């Protein structure tokens, strides 16, 4: 009989991201019925739990964000997988979100709504925030947008004052050009931005649109207005971490491997539900396309809902959005196709039916033209993104 292994989970239980990791680990454990789990209630940055000092187990999954946790994990000598971006023990394999894809989704979400002024709220003491800032500003430049950056002071530094930091944030938001779309590095930063906008009587989303990261549903709904957010695939990250640890406890040597998990999409809520385009006809066309692109519509269908000629509609789209109505329809279909390829095992024929393509062959040609990859190649690569 196979030995039932003991696994310690050094993860905080106080936020949605870590709870998503736990769900993925639980899913792997239930599928294989391999482990006895040891976990305590922890906060972010907490010291190693007392029980861990004398714990005799087989493996560890940890968010290694402090030197104390790093030291404890190394001292144990056990197989371990890191699920933190801090990289305090580089020789360990790690599973993390793909921050480039997170930034791309946030930038696309804002530019698709017509914003040409963008901004980023970050906390550079965290690697994941710095990576998201770097990629977001890169995508802003590629889209021809201006991009402002606010870098918050570290809350763990001596002398940190939230009152002083809030005054800095208020001054920054007040001076930003409007309308503007802002990406917050995580949902808590998005909540802070929305509070400041309310204090300054700035209309959200008409003057300032905000999108966060993590899709912490309770926190997002507590915001006024509710906060849009990029949805990380934490369930899959936890599952992949458990799978890696299982391989290591079975004797496989895995050193420094990085598995980067792409996000699932964007949960759109009121904080970004707007088009920053001063053209009512183009806004009407955009809304119609967003709602019906995957129903197999053509530009002719769009023309039935706006009082414009095809030539005038295309001229206004090109001027305000930077692409034609047909390109916008295809962009939405390809985005939807990408998500179904990443998150489901549906056949190409079924995906074509759900995304408005007449058949799988047409989908394959269009997808490769837009992305440079075949649908099958994209599905394979997205299932294991290694850096």
Automatic annotation (TrEMBL):
Question: SUPFAM superfamilies of this UniProt entry?
Answer: Homeodomain-like, Periplasmic binding protein-like I
Instruction: State the UniProt keywords alphabetically.
Output: DNA-binding, Transcription, Transcription regulation
Transmembrane stretches in the record are none
- HTH araC/xylS-type domain boundaries: 283-381
InterPro entries this protein is in? Answer: Homeodomain-like_sf (IPR009057), HTH_AraC (IPR018060), HTH_AraC-typ_CS (IPR018062), LacI/GalR-like_sensor (IPR046335), Peripla_BP_I (IPR028082), XylR_PBP1 (IPR054031)
* Keyword Heme annotated: no
User: Molecular function terms in GO for this entry?
Assistant: DNA-binding transcription factor activity; transcription cis-regulatory region binding
Q: Indicate yes or no for the key word DNA-binding.
A: yes
Q: Which domain of life is it from?
A: Bacteria
Q: What PROSITE patterns does this protein's entry cite?
A: HTH_ARAC_FAMILY_1, HTH_ARAC_FAMILY_2
* SMART domains, A to Z: HTH_ARAC (SM00342)
Q: Which PANTHER family match?
A: LACI-RELATED TRANSCRIPTIONAL REPRESSOR, XYLOSE OPERON REGULATORY PROTEIN
Which named protein is this?
A: Xylose operon regulatory protein
Q: Which organism is it from?
A: Lacipirellula limnantheis
Query: What's the gene?
Result: xylR_8
């Amino acid at each position: 009989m196979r030995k039932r292994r003991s696994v310690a989970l050094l993860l905080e239980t106080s936020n949605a991201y870590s709870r998503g990791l736990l769900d993925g680990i639980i899913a792997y454990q239930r599928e294989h019925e391999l482990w006895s789990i040891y976990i305590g209630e922890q906060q972010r940055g907490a010291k190693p739990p007392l029980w861990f000092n004398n714990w005799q187990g087989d493996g560890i999954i940890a968010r290694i964000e402090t030197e104390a946790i790093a030291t404890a994990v190394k001292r144990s000598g056990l197989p371990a997988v890191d699920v933190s971006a801090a990289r305090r023990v580089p020789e360990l394999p790690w599973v993390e979100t793909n921050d480039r894809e997170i930034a791309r989704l946030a930038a696309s979400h804002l530019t698709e709504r017509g914003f040409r002024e963008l901004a980023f709220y970050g906390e550079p003491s965290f690697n994941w925030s710095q990576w998201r800032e770097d990629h977001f500003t890169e995508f802003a430049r590629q889209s021809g947008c201006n991009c402002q950056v606010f870098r918050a002071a570290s809350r763990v530094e001596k002398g940190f004052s939230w009152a002083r930091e809030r005054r800095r944030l208020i001054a920054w938001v007040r001076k930003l050009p409007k309308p503007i779309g802002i990406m917050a590095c995580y949902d808590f930063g998005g909540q802070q931005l929305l509070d400041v906008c309310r204090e300054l009587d700035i209309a959200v989303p008409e003057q300032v649109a905000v999108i966060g990261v993590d899709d912490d549903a309770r926190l997002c709904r507590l915001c006024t207005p509710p906060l849009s957010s990029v949805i990380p695939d934490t369930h899959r990250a936890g599952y992949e971490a458990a799978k890696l640890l299982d391989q290591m406890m079975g004797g496989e040597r895995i050193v420094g491997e990085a598995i980067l998990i792409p996000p699932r999409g964007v949960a759109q809520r009121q904080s970004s539900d707007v088009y920053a385009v001063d053209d009512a006809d183009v806004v009407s066309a955009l809304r119609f396309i967003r709602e019906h692109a995957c129903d197999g519509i053509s530009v002719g269908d769009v023309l039935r809902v706006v009082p414009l000629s095809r030539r005038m509609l295309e001229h206004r789209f090109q001027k305000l959005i930077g692409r034609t109505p047909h390109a916008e329809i295809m962009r939405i279909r390809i985005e939807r196709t990408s998500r179904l390829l990443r998150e489901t095992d549906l056949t190409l024929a079924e995906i074509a039916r759900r995304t408005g393509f007449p058949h799988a062959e047409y989908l394959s040609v269009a997808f490769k033209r837009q992305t440079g990859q075949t649908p099958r190649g994209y599905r394979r690569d997205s299932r294991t993104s290694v850096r």
